[in-house]
Amino acid sequence: MLGKVSFCIPLFLSILPCLGASVTVITHGFQFGNNYPDWIDTMASNVALRAGRNTSVYRMEIQWPSIARSPSVQIFKLESGLPSSAFTTNAEIVVKVFWHTVAGFTDPANSTDVASLVVPYLTRAIDLGNGTTVRAFAKLPIHLIGHSRGGGVVSEIARLLGEQGVWVDHLTTLDPHPLTDADCVFFGAICPAARDTAVVVLNNLNNVIFADNYYQNVAICPSP
Q1: Is residue 143 scored above 70 in pLDDT?
Q2: DSSP 3-state assignment of 191?
Q3: Which are the contacts of 182, defined by CB distance < 8 A and separation ≥ 6?
Q4: Could you report the per-residue pLDDT of 108-135, keeping only the tens digit for each?
Q5: Mean of pLDDT values over 4-17
Q6: Where are the beta strands (DSSP E) in 88-224?
Q7: No. of H helices and E strands in the chain?
Q8: Domain residue spans in the chain?
Q9: Could you give the CA distance from residue 157 to residue 115 in angstroms, rounded to a whole number?
Q10: Distance (Å, whole) CA 170 – CA 211
C-alpha cells in the first residue's frame, strides 16, 4: 500500500556502488503533503562517505512553477565534494533527485515526467557555471535507486537510457509502488488525470546488468 511505505524507510540502508568511478542516482516516491524526504540526504551522505573523500554530490530539484505548463528542473548544483573531472582522484558521483513538491496526490506530474527530466542530466555534459563543465555522467557505471513511486522513476530512467544505448549497471527498487486509482480511493483523495504510467520492470530491460528489489512486509514502522 502506498501510504505505509512513503514515510518508513530504513535509513541504515546505504547501498555501495563499485568503487573507482561510478554514478549513484537516488530518488524518493510519494510524499504526503509534499513533505521533504530527508532520508535522501542521509543515504547520499552515507554513500559518499563510503565512496571516499571529495566524492561529488549533486542536488537536482524538479518543481512546477505556478506560471509553467509542465514541471522542470529548477535546481541542479554541486552540493559537496569536487566537480567530477580528470583532475580529481575520486571519480565517484552521487546525484540526489528531489521532486517532492510535485509528488503528492493532487499534483499532475507523474513518474514518467520526472524520469524524462532526469535523463538529459545523465547523458549530456553539464555546465555548472564559472567555467566549470562536467562530462556526461552516463559515461560511467550507473546505479539507480528509487523508493515507492521512485521505483517507477528509476525504471523509466533505465528504459530511456537504453534507447540511447546506455547500459545501467545496477537498478535498485525500494518498496516500489505507482500512484494508482486504488490509492486515491483508499485515501479519499482527488487525484489528477496524470497517474503513474511508468511501472517497475526488473526483468525486461535489456540494458540493465543487475537489478534487485527490497520490500516491506509489515503494515507500519516498528517501534524503536
Answers
A1: yes
A2: coil
A3: none
A4: 888 899 999 999 999 999 998 888 888 9
A5: 42
A6: 93-98, 126-129, 132-134, 142-147, 168-174, 208-214
A7: 6, 9
A8: 2-214
A9: 5
A10: 6
Q: Cell numbers 504510467 correspond to what residue?
A: 197
Q: Which residue has cell 565534494?
A: 81
- Residue 187 in this model has a pLDDT that exceeds 80: no
Q: Residue for cell digits 506560471?
A: 67
Among 1.10.357, 1.10.3430, 3.40.1390, 3.40.50, name the CATH number for the domain at 2-214.
Answer: 3.40.50
In angstroms, what CA-CA distances link 207 with 62, 146, 163, 167, 216?
26, 17, 9, 5, 27
What is the pLDDT at residue 4? 35
What type of residue sits at position 48? A
First CA to last CA across the chain, in angstroms? 22
Owner of C-alpha cell 546505479: 143
**pTM attached to this predicted model:** 0.83
